[in-house]
Automatic annotation (TrEMBL):
It comes from Blyttiomyces helicus. Its main location: mitochondrion. Keywords: Membrane, Mitochondrion, Repeat, Transmembrane, Transmembrane helix, Transport. One of its GO terms (biological process) is mitochondrial L-ornithine transmembrane transport. Gene3D superfamilies: Mitochondrial carrier domain. Solcar repeats lie at residues 16-107, 121-206, 219-309. This is Mitochondrial carrier domain-containing protein. Pfam families: Mito_carr. It comes from the Eukaryota. The keyword Magnesium does not apply. Belongs to the mitochondrial carrier (TC 2.A.29) family.
Length: 309
């Protein structure tokens, strides 16, 4: 399936093509999320562990230690805690992401950049279209990620169901509270999606230009996987600090309860969270869990492009 700019003759997006984009985007999101969720659980726990003090060391020394402690105290099942919201969210996100991206590219190409249909697509329009598509998907992701993160940091046997978490949030703080962390999610998704599509399409077009020029359907599977893996790394690395601050903001109440504090008093603004993190750990604190996130992004993005293409 061609994500680059189509020729003028096939410029108009057909209804069945749009439906296929959403269908295969959903399938790509579903398969990738099943593979990556255990890694995501470790990432969230690393991001949201209490800040270390001179008398209290960090709860986890790194991904391996977090994985070992989680398995020993809670079992293998705990790595999949909170998977229901992201399964749904990933299907919706990727359906919206790919279909919106493909629909926006011709608009950005002609309407924003003022180019003709005969001119080739540029990396700039891929990034702009990706950013807008990512921003659209963030509104679906925010409440689902909020619920997921709260489930992932829970150490209660069996955990709390996604429905119970959602009801508890709405009863206590109202429906708007489901969008806590929305600004950081918007920033992460817009910037990350700009990086993902910009890197992916640029590498794919580079492969297509080899050997005298090839069509997209002539690319080998490994070439698509290389492009997807590089795009996944770019997506996660581009605005990772925003993801760390988001995770803390979405789970600081749960962590406060674990520490015997008033959960309402633990709420803080993005600036307060970032300042506290910097004081405790410096710049390094904003990259908690980056290693395992990049590790999971390689197979995850390879699965996404293999399914979608």
């Amino acid at each position: 399936m061609d994500i680059s700019l189509p020729p003028a003759a096939s410029w108009k997006l057909k209804k069945d093509s749009a439906f296929a984009d959403m269908l295969f985007g959903s399938a790509a999101g579903l398969f990738s999320k099943i593979v990556e969720h255990p890694f995501d659980t470790i990432k969230v726990r690393l991001q949201t562990q209490p800040l270390p003090t001179p008398t209290t060391p960090a709860l986890f020394t790194g991904p391996t230690d977090c994985f070992r402690q989680t398995l020993r105290t809670e079992g293998l099942k705990s790595l999949f805690r909170g998977i229901t919201p992201p399964l749904l969210g990933s299907m919706l996100e990727h359906a919206i992401l790919f279909s919106t991206y493909l629909a926006l590219k011709p608009i950005v190409h002609t309407g924003i950049l003022g180019r003709t249909l005969s001119e080739p697509a540029s990396t700039l329009e891929m990034c702009i279209s990706g950013a807008l598509a990512g921003a659209a998907g963030s509104f679906i992701l925010t409440p689902l990620e909020l619920i997921k993160c709260k489930q992932q940091v829970s150490t209660t046997a069996g955990g709390e169901s996604a429905t119970s978490v959602a009801i508890r949030i709405v009863r206590r703080d109202g429906p708007a509270a489901l969008f806590r962390g929305g600004s950081a999610t918007l920033l992460r998704e817009a910037g990350g999606s700009a990086a993902w599509f910009g890197i992916y399409d640029s590498i794919v077009m580079g492969f297509m230009a080899r050997d005298g020029g090839r069509g997209r359907d002539q690319l080998a599977g490994w070439e698509l996987c290389v492009a997807g893996s590089a795009a996944g790394i770019g997506y996660n690395a581009s605005l990772f600090p925003a993801d760390v601050v988001k995770s803390i903001r979405q789970t600081n109440e749960e962590m406060a309860v674990r520490e015997g504090m008033d959960p309402r008093a633990a709420r803080g603004s993005y600036a307060q969270i970032a300042a506290g993190l910097f004081r405790a750990e410096g710049v390094r604190g904003f990259y908690r869990g980056l290693g395992i996130t990049l590790m999971r992004s390689v197979p995850s993005s390879a699965i996404i492009v293999s399914t979608f293409e």
